[in-house]
Structures
1.
Amino acid sequence: MKFKHLIIFTSVLVALIACNSKKTTNSVEAEAVEQTENILPSWNEGQTKTSIMDYVNEVTDKNSPLFIPEADRIATFDNDGNLWAEQPAYFQLYFAIDQVKALAPQHPEWKYTQPFKAVLDNDMNTLMEQGERGLLKLVMATHSNNTTEEFDSIVSKWIRTAKHPTKNVNYDKLIYQPMLELLDYLRVNNFKTYIVSGGGVDFMRAFVSPIYGISSEQIIGSRVKTEYHYNDGNPTIERLPTLDFINDKEGKTLNIQKIIGKKPVFSSGNSDGDLEMMQWTASNQNKNFILYLHHTDSVREWAYDKDSHIGRLDKGLEQAKQKGWTVIDMKKDWKVIFPFEM
């Protein structure tokens, strides 16, 4: 009987150990899944999210042959259409439109002069017909003849009060929650993140630093010419009505080299205007990651690519397919788009 009891006891003990082992294994697996879900939580599970995480894990693992030292972990992001929305027109254009209306009493001639007349008549079709030259007139009239401090104050006030014409929320609410998470994820892994945008550098610096967690010196954009004046001990920098540099297409690579001084290893954009930046990053001998955002969600945001007058994506999308770059399908890959949807 004693031998029989010993056999029963041993069988129960083995069963308990096996059960606990299974529970431990299941717990570890569940914990691993939970940790993965906590990374980029607004991203759906799939190839896009996995590719990003695999890349970061590979280049930050000191035992990996693909390890990249922290000093070389440079990540560049376009802004319009990549970190925040850009339809039906760039946010900076809406700022210029609002400024034209605010300044109109000082310029009675604008009632009869394009492109200002189109703005005052709320005629967006005619305004768009003015082309780049007409839009440049708007920008020069509304972004200059003031100091850097005055311009910063004007933009900061506008962003607190202005509403997007179709979404009817403040412009700073139309940032992409999944991209905010990506910026944070990269910084946690000791990447240095930069904005490299065609937008005006001082326009962006006025308010995006706290939104994105990117300091003003890491924001690179187009700029107007400026002049320094001492003013008897009250120095100012005056903004002039002349373009100094357009930070678009090849201009992005030139400014990256001039200001950052290193090739990025990670680049993210959404249009053909980012293609040269992507190509420059892809030429880095370190393992690199190229990420294009494709706007495919006509319900929650907008769907557009090669036929769009804003954020046109044609050559970039084709090259992404040829080179095997990662392309975000907004509709498929993102659980939410804007923070207020959470």
2.
Amino acid sequence: MVAEALRLSNAHRSPHHQVTHTVIHTGQHYDQSMSDVFFRELPIPTPEYNLEVGSGSHGKQTAALLERTEQVLLKSRPDVVVVYGDTNSTIAAGLAAVKIGIPVAHVEAGLRSFNRQMPEEINRVATDHISDLLFCPTETAVQNLRREGITQSVFLSGDVMLDAVLSFRCVAREQSKILPELALSAKSYVLLTIHRAENTDSSERIKEVLDFLLEIKYPVVFPMHPRTKSRLQREPGLADYGKRLEQSENIRVIDPVSYLDMLALEDGARLILTDSGGVQKEAYFLEVPCLTVRGETEWAETLIDGWNQLIEPSRSSLSKIEGVWDGNGSGSRGKPNLEYFGSGHAATKIVHTLLQNS
């Protein structure tokens, strides 16, 4: 959620707002390509605190985040704690704050996949029910909260990720060198990301996904997430898949990339294949067709007009890839309706509301 934090931080630094904004870096991504590069590449304030939590099981990581965030909050005593999204750090920071009487503001409130097997679903539901201010990116999210009896201090802010894409798309086009470095031309490749627990934690499931991916006949660029890479390296039964990916004529595995490079890869892709919620949205914002390897999505708006389609890793889904590829992008789809996600000024709305309620 780095880019979203940037937008809020910039709004905080407006001369009209006398607000001290303290950034806490959880240290979950200790790989430089997933962490430090964002602070070098984008005008994001240097974090005052780095919790250095690292990876681990959900229980271990959440417990460490809760304990270390509490220590920071007891020391700094902020007026409000702003949490983002649906990660372990989201619920941990929210719990740490509410237990010592500090109000919690949840950005990206109200999202629901309605799949309680997803760790992210548990995080987002629990965070919404302990938050004092709830900032919803879409009207669907507002309605989800209403069905759960949450109607007070709910605000339709729009999506801060839309703010980020609108702000940095041109910057990525000007500054990113990732396409020429990989000898890629625009609309000549599939961009692939796979990292969700539902696709990587089960040996049977990850084998199904990898078998499916290895059948794709088009050029594929695959920035491999540390979660996926770790699974392939540490489990003997998956070692062969790592070799097959390396030897594949179509799949090109690369290290994780920075925000601007990822935005450039998304912008230049002919098709995006992913299980990431954020990448689904960015594909929609950039008018790039997306196939999501999941049974459901919390971003229902992206499914309208077929810009995003949910698929299983099966032979029939290969024909969907072929259909989107041969359709040369948009096919018969209408233009994505970005108004579902606001006006591109969600961060400003959120800061204004925080100031009014603090």
3.
Amino acid sequence: MANALLSKGLAQGDRVILYVGNSLELVVAVAALWKVGALPIPITTWTVGRELAFLVADSKPFAVLYGPDQEAAVQTADLPACVMHITTAASDRGLDLTSLVEAVAEGPPPSLPPSPDDAMIGYTSGTTGNPKGAILTHANLITAQLLVSTYCGLRGDDIYMIMTPIAHRVGMARLVTCFSLGASVVVMPKFDPTDAVSLITQHRVTVISLVPTVARLLLEWIEATGETCESLRAVTATGEAFPVLLKERLAALLPHIGLWVLYGMTEGGVPAVLRPDEQILKPTSVGRPLPGVEIRLVDEAGADAAQGDSGEVLLRSGAPGQAMVAREYFDRPEVNRETYKNGWFSTGDVGRFDEDGYLYLVDRVKDMIVSGGLNIYSREVELVLESAPAVREVVVVAGPDKDFGECVVAYVALKPGHEANLEVLIAHCRNYIAGYKKPKYVFILESLPRNVNGKAMKSDLRARAPQDIADASIDRC
């Protein structure tokens, strides 16, 4: 495949969007692009035409590789004529990948110089706006993989399973595990809890990686069926804040499994880890910094936050691109100047350290709610609401308030068969947080809006909050 792409004019540093689901074609395409020094840009097949059009315009790719199921979205996106279309099945819309590969000679492609080291572009999830493409180097991918594997005791003889899209950071990390450790990886084309448990049993899978959404679905199935997944020995949990209640359910259902909670992000790799023996000791922490990673907390003026105080999380791990931290954002000079300063990367997360050096994520900088001059961390309110018996998922955002500037607005999805209302949920909050932090409005939704990577879209909910408040029949206080 590498030779076929070279024959069509692909050059080192060119970018190729991989718009295909988890499949052999996707895995081989990633390897082929790395062999020729090009940058794969894997995106999920949930991406719709308008989103695809933005990613193409932003990344300026040499080509887009897609399958039959993505043809309609590609046509809707109306891609520029200069972008080559390559299809995984014969189609009059583009070059057939199979025919392309069969037409060229075998043998290794020309060797590459040691630099530039750029490996791929990973687009951020875009929960607060348009996604940005982080340029990750081979050093980034390998360093993060080896640090995490060594720290967490992951081995080359483990059998791993990818349950989330490889286009997502968590799935790609497991693919890099395969390449870096020579490990076997079982790939699910699409997550289904029944199939997941069956594949774990069939292939004797020993390590899986979970994000909260997948964990909820998997645990619900295990609870209903009594499955034991006896071959599993380790679970790594990442993607977003991993709720304590999910940890407790996992420990109760599968007590033989070690849970590793990873503080991870596209641009910063995995800067901190909470070990299995620390889950009870520090259940709400994301752990301590990994060896080779520095974490600094700063206030709004850029000064170091005092011990115990919250501040924005800054990361440093060698120069950007050399170890954990991505080299830069693609074609975003202003964002790079704002985000990369004096060798430190600004994550946009708000965190605090306890007296033992454990890191706690408090919120996102942009998600802080300022009501009556008081700072309210949306994540703190979310954690409290998530502990309510009827609540399955929740997102808390700022809403307009004529008296206090902003108020707390919660959007809640309930567990199947459960009921709750504003009064019940606010009463629950009163037992855990100060009165000024409790939601002024609670809106029950069947499900939360999600982006292409499955993360709840706070930006969408924040945008609709003013109208939802205006439509509310009773002014809550």
4.
Amino acid sequence: MRHNFINVALTQYTKEFRTNFTLAYPVILGMLGHNIMGLVDNIMVGHLGSVQLAAVSLANSFVFIAMSAGIGFSTAITPIVAQGHGAKDDTTVRSVFHNGLFLCILLGLFLFGLVEFGKPLMHLMKQPGEVIALASPFITWVAISLVPMVIFQAYKQFTDGMSLTKYAMYAVVFSNVIHIPINYALIYGVWFFPKLGMMGAAYGTVISRVAMLIFMHIAIVNHKKLGQYFKGFSFSEIKGTMIKKIISLGFPSSMQMLFEVALFTAAIWLSGFLGTTSQAANQIALSLASMTFMFAMGLSVAAMVRVGNQKGQQNFIKLRTVARSVFLMAIIVETVFALIFLVLHNMLPHYFINAENVLQVQDNAEVLIIAGQLLMVAAVFQLSDGVQVVVLGALRGLQDVKVPTLITFVAYWVIGFPLSFYLGLYTPLKATGIWIGLLASLTVAAIFLYLRFNYLANKLICEGAPQLETLNLKPETN
């Protein structure tokens, strides 16, 4: 009897897997495409030496914080579009797209300026002088790429909210097709291209992100369903009420992502205090962990879109079921990645190091050992990281952002950072201690974010119970 009950309970979630996957896989491939750009940079630049790899790591940490804030802000577009789409309210969908795009253009320009004027912070953080010298010009050019990147995000979040997640995937694939050969040519000086070293990776990033935005614009304008939203596009569409609504959702969402990304960036900076080998090892482990995180990010978007749709239809029982099905998928996927990291933790870092460089044999050996240790910790936090991000997606679908922002701040900066700081700099654990602090913060975030979602979902079901009885439906019990 109990066995049958468990099977029935699981079936209501697993039958949603196909729909979840259909929405999530283009987002996953698109996010992996973004990550592959950074991974390609790390692999190609890593073969130039550990100092160059540390410089790219430090530079990307600055830009990635700003980019994450921009991406986090743009996610406000998706749940409002999804709710409007679910309620068949084209007026709201149009208004969100126009106002969201306007805000993302302004935000991209602002973030570029913020990163460029923030470069002196590298000296205040006492990073190695040789690393700063290489990182400074790299930052400027990659910061320029933030402008097309954040504008692209407005298009992406709009199409995601319309449950058309493939177009952003196609755009990112196109940008990678351009990025990889341009990077290789400019870094190593192939054919008639100049040999620019690590700066070639920066120029390649700018070129590929501009191409990605152009591709996305052309694809949407020529889409028979989406093209209508470009007709009559003018500043008269910009409305204060919608601007305020997007900002009220976008700013807290931006802070949520910023808190997490800033913590991982702080791990890079803390590793810099330990030396270039720890910083390079941290970048290797972070690159691999970021790849697996993209799968959870894709599922997070699926949760945000589907929860937003169900909220628009006011089907709160289905809303909870759909969200839990995404949570279950994330747990399964991240468990697989955890096992891969555990089994291959000593093998994977070798792909980032040039073993033929006899001048850096000792440094390379140390980098490989540290990176292997960090991947062991990364294996453990796969579950926590996956759960916290998909639950955040579901909460954004509910347009609940203020309490989750508080939860993430406490988890990452009241709990996680002090642990990473103490264990990394004041115990023999060093780089491994820094990552244990990351593990603790992600675990706390996952637990309390889920409790928040469960509370809100049950509250919506209870408040909607009279209406459900009228429709001859019964709310499920926990």
